[in-house]
Design a protein that fits this description.
about 375 residues; alpha/beta; 7-stranded mixed β-sheet; 14 helices; 9 strands; about 40% helix
């Protein structure tokens, strides 16, 4: 279970919240700590078998919907296209999976912001601290800019099969944290190797403790750290909630997730079948996003029942949090993403807050030698 943090425990800008795992995809709330899941029986190998790895465990919402997508894909294409799924991190962490895709050992993977940022660092603009206040703003940005994001991914040799999310990221600590000064008294965990999370903590003049996600529970148990950042769903599934007592009710950032496919493998499939798979992926990932949002809300309620205390920060202290966190926007502009892309995201968010109607989504120019039948729906 701990391995799945990568998709859902996200780096602060999420992860999947990694899922990772990209994502979004923990066991359903009722069985978050016990679900084992049973792999499906072996079936005839499809003509185009897409081997896709994820940190999501068998029996999770993420895996259940991916298996439904596999069933629907095989049926719609008469077994010309199908997925061979590797759950539970059996193929390694996100960066290992990415290497295997590039070597041709896998054809795809489920990634959180860390893995997606390794493909195209510009995508980390979606995980900047305090960029989004609600899901309407997130949906507006995706509706207007997904074509741009997907083009960036395609230029690196990948195709976005579908977008999902880890969800909003909160602070979980063993004491109340109502503002930046309180945070300095906490031994915070840092997702090792994440430049955006490091920039965030640096802005607050905090020296976090870098650890791999799989080491966090042990670090909490031994008091090496006493503060983490995570989506609520991941916090329960990874059992971090058993070692923290407070959640600061401030949305620090929002964690993205997606499944990407090697462009070479995608373009080996016929245009007609690609169109079928793209349509099915859009339907299934839209459902996954909705389920993830619901389960994150349920997770907060469940943790409160178990004794977690929600800390409401004073508006003035929230403003202080945001002012410091937003320094990261400018600091990383020109490093992780171009200023023009940041401006586009800010513009879309501002329009959503003002209640302006959504602009028509920009059309993605086809890459040389590629089909315009690309997936990527939410």
């Amino acid at each position: 279970m701990h391995r799945f943090l990568a998709f859902l425990g996200i780096r602060l800008p999420i992860l999947l919240g990694c899922v990772v795992l990209v994502a979004a995809g923990l066991p359903t709330l009722a069985g978050a700590q016990a679900a084992k899941g049973t792999p499906p029986p072996r079936r005839p190998k499809p003509q185009h078998e897409l081997k896709v790895a994820t940190l999501a465990p068998e029996g999770s919402t993420w895996m259940n919907i991916l298996r439904e997508l596999d069933d629907a894909t095989r049926a719609a294409t008469e077994n010309r296209v199908g997925f061979k799924l590797y759950p539970g991190g059996v193929q390694g962490e996100e960066l290992t999976v990415l290497k295997k895709i590039r070597l041709g050992q896998l054809q795809g993977g489920g990634f959180s912001g860390q893995g997606l940022g390794e493909i195209a660092s510009e995508l980390r603009v979606l995980e900047l601290p305090f960029m989004f206040k609600n899901t309407d703003e997130i949906d507006r940005v995706h509706s207007q800019l997904d074509a741009t994001f997907e083009q960036l991914v395609e230029e690196k040799g990948f195709v976005v099969l579908g977008w999902s999310e880890v969800g909003f990221i909160y602070l979980f600590t063993d004491r109340p944290v109502t503002g930046p000064e309180d945070l300095k008294q906490v031994k915070m965990w840092l997702w090792e190797g994440d430049p955006l999370a490091a920039a965030f903590f640096n802005a607050y003049d905090i020296s976090p403790i870098p650890l791999a996600p799989t080491d966090v529970l042990t670090a909490l148990q031994t008091k090496l750290v006493n503060g983490v950042y995570s989506s609520p769903l991941a916090c329960i599934a990874l059992q971090w909630n058993t070692r923290v007592s407070h959640m600061t009710d401030v949305r620090l950032t929002h964690g993205m997730a997606a499944v990407v496919i090697d462009r070479r493998a995608w373009e080996a499939i016929s245009p007609a079948d690609r169109q079928q798979v793209a349509a099915l992926a859009q339907e299934h990932f839209h459902r996954l996003t909705g389920r993830t949002r619901t389960e994150n809300e349920q997770s907060i309620a469940e943790m409160k029942k178990r004794g977690l205390k929600l800390v409401s920060a004073d508006p003035a202290r929230v403003a202080e949090f945001e002012a410091i966190g937003k320094r990261v926007w400018k600091e990383q502009s020109g490093k992780l993403y171009p200023p023009a892309l940041l401006a586009q995201v800010e513009e879309a968010v501002a329009a959503a807050r003002q209640g302006k109607p959504a602009q028509a989504a920009a059309e993605k120019p086809p890459l040389k030698g590629s089909s315009t039948l690309a997936p990527g729906g939410r």
